[in-house]
């Protein structure tokens, strides 16, 4: 079904200014990938080079590779069997190889990339490597594709830094078609709100560790992504709405016939769109300004992860596009929140999918003129294909049908005419403390403005100790600083949420201000994150003292310290001994990253100056 709607004026305005701002860098990028596309390398490799490339192939594949007239598909995989979301990828390469043969091509695993689980490293030293793992994944992707023997690539990755890293790496080979293949969410376990209550009860000492571990095990109980709407599932929404996945592929459960059929279809599609045929669709052309604007709109409409305010900026830069937080802020003002998935509600992504999922979401946003309908995707020109959803017919064959015209559960998913709130779930803050991001979609409206004295901490452990000692008894804005990318890699501070939630439930006015990150599942406590400039870079957050009154105003988009201007200007920045955060658990290997990394609103990337 075709939906005609004029593009919203704000959406058009933001898109146009990205085009103007990025004119020179985007032109250089497109010239580079055009030059790469005009000189296909595999067919001119030396005989020894080619022999090495297919030496381990089976006889049939080796013959096809030796003849050199069939498309060759590279598989870049983030498989490991520790991440629940990535464990199903163990069997994907063989599925892809078989599908490629059936379609007249050849597929090989080109390389693997690291995949760490933020859920395991939360609150631990390893979390300080998490954000930088995105850059390592991008570098590993480039190495995998550097053999220059492939006509297209498929990418197996889902979780937090993994998809952005794969995208950045793929864009460095922007002349190649790229299709992303998810594995899907685990089936629903213990409800997310029930899990949150157990976590808070544990923080208050009302239940023991055994009860907490049992609840966590019931929530995270099988293969697939965690079912809350954190960064991993936000990534999947983005890959679909930005046109890098097949329609309806994001939230089909792992190890099911439909999931396998979608994996096979994605393989076939990747082979269809190489430069050897008539439908050449390279990733560097797919990810243009329209795709990124569509992605930001999807982020706001679903109340997605705050981490994407970093990742989308870094991904855009890899395509020669300059995105700013102002683009996010301006699009949020015209994008209604039409999904409620935990932590923005009680439902999980399986409920979202059952209520209509991506096809309904895209249908509503298109009808409201909030998406670029003509954006290029791996399915061709336009988002119309993404109004369909996959099914298996009675003979087990993959078919497509129109997605639902109405939501199956308006407590989870609504139309744009009856949104949960009229603006998106993210807000950019500006003020005397710099710039920051706040996720408002899960915060009660009466808590969108908090004015309270500061309690300053230089690490999350100090705040945890103060809580355990019963020292946090009044209204406060907790300032946790020296957590930015230059300081210690910008870890997530998700472990602070249960105890801050306890204080809030006791009737206190509570908020958090930090130059660190929070999990994509950050929830009910108002939190200004990604404060930039960061404390380690001389940012204003380093001047705050205990007792300073801070005003966090998510309604007007302000973050200010209420100190007399003369006194504030005369203050020196606090210093912190960060040496303990620079060694151990591999952190000593990332000194270059900490020195090189850009500020948060430039993507916190070593590739962006």
From TrEMBL:
GO biological process assignments: D-gluconate metabolic process; Entner-Doudoroff pathway through 6-phosphogluconate
Cellular component terms (Gene Ontology): cytosol
EC number(s) from the headed UniProt entry: 4.2.1.12
GO molecular function: 4 iron, 4 sulfur cluster binding; metal ion binding; phosphogluconate dehydratase activity
Keywords, comma-separated and alphabetical: 4Fe-4S, Carbohydrate metabolism, Gluconate utilization, Iron, Iron-sulfur, Lyase, Metal-binding
Binding sites annotated in the UniProt record for [4Fe-4S] cluster: 159, 226
Residue span, Dihydroxy-acid/6-phosphogluconate dehydratase C-terminal domain: 412-604
Pathway as given in its UniProt record: Carbohydrate metabolism; Entner-Doudoroff pathway
Source species, domain of life: Bacteria
Signal peptide: none
Catalytic activity, reaction form: 6-phospho-D-gluconate = 2-dehydro-3-deoxy-6-phospho-D-gluconate + H2O
Comment on bound cofactor: Binds 1 [4Fe-4S] cluster.
UniProt cofactor(s): [4Fe-4S] cluster
SUPFAM superfamilies: IlvD/EDD N-terminal domain-like (SSF143975), LeuD/IlvD-like (SSF52016)
Enzyme class: lyase
Residues annotated as domain Dihydroxy-acid/6-phosphogluconate dehydratase N-terminal: 71-383
Function of the molecule: Catalyzes the dehydration of 6-phospho-D-gluconate to 2-dehydro-3-deoxy-6-phospho-D-gluconate.
Family indicated by similarity: Belongs to the IlvD/Edd family.
Protein name, as recorded: Phosphogluconate dehydratase
């Amino acid at each position: 079904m075709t939906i005609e709607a004029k593009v919203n004026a704000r959406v058009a305005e933001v898109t146009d200014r990205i085009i103007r701002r990025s004119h020179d860098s985007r032109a250089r990028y497109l010239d580079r990938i055009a030059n790469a596309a005009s000189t296909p390398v595999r067919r001119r490799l030396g005989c020894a080079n080619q022999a090495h490339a297919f030496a381990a192939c089976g006889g049939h594949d080796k013959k096809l590779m030796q003849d050199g007239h069939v498309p060759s598909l590279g598989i870049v995989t983030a498989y490991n069997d520790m991440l629940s979301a990535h464990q199903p990828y163990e069997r994907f390469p063989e599925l892809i190889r078989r599908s490629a043969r059936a379609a007249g091509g050849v597929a090989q695993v080109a390389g693997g990339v690291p995949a760490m689980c933020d859920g395991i490293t939360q609150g631990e030293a390893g979390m300080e490597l998490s954000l930088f793992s995105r850059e390592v994944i991008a570098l590993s992707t480039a190495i995998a594709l550097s053999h220059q023997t492939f006509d297209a690539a498929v990418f197996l990755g889902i979780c937090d830094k993994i998809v952005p890293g794969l995208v950045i790496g793929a864009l460095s080979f922007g002349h190649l078609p790229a299709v992303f293949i998810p594995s899907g969410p685990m089936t629903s376990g213990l409800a997310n709100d029930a899990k949150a209550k157990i976590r808070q009860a544990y923080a208050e000492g009302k239940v023991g560790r055994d009860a907490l571990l049992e609840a966590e095990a019931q929530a995270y109980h099988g293969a697939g992504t965690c079912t809350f709407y954190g960064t991993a599932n936000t990534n999947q929404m983005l890959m679909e709405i930005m046109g890098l996945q097949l329609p309806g592929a994001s939230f089909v459960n792992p190890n099911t016939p439909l999931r396998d059929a979608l994996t096979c279809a994605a393989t076939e599609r990747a082979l269809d769109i190489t430069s050897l045929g008539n439908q050449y669709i390279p990733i560097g052309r797919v990810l243009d300004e329209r795709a990124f604007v569509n992605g930001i709109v999807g982020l706001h409409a679903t109340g997605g992860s705050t981490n994407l305010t970093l990742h989308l900026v870094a991904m855009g830069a890899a395509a020669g596009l300059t995105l700013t937080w102002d683009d996010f802020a301006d699009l949020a003002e015209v994008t209604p929140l039409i999904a409620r998935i935990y932590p923005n509600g009680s439902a999980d992504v399986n409920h979202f999918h059952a209520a209509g999922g991506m096809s309904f979401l895209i249908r509503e946003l298109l009808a409201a003129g909030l998406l670029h309908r003509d954006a290029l995707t791996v399915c061709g020109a336009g988002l119309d294909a993404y109004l369909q959803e996959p099914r298996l017919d009675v003979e087990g064959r993959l078919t497509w049908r129109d997605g639902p015209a109405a939501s199956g559960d308006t407590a989870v998913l609504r139309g744009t005419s009856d949104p949960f709130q009229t603006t998106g779930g993210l807000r950019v803050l500006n003020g005397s403390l710099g710039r920051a991001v706040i996720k408002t979609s899960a915060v009660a409206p009466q808590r969108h403005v908090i004015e309270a004295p500061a309690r300053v901490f230089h690490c999350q452990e100090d705040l945890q100790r103060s809580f355990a000692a019963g020292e946090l008894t009044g209204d406060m804005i907790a300032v946790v600083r020296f957590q930015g990318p230059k300081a210690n890699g910008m870890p997530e501070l998700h472990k602070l949420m249960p105890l801050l939630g306890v204080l809030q439930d006791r009737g206190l006015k509570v908020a958090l201000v930090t130059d660190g990150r929070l999990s994509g599942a950050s929830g009910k406590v108002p939190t200004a994150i990604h404060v930039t400039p960061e404390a380690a870079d001389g940012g204003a957050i380093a001047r705050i003292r205990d007792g300073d009154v801070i005003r966090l105003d998510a309604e007007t988009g302000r973050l200010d310290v209420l100190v007399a201007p003369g006194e504030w200007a005369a203050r020196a920045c606090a210093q912190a001994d960060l040496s303990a955060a620079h060694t151990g658990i591999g952190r000593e290997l990332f000194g270059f990253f900490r020195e090189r990394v850009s500020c948060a609103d430039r993507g916190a990337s070593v590739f962006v100056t």
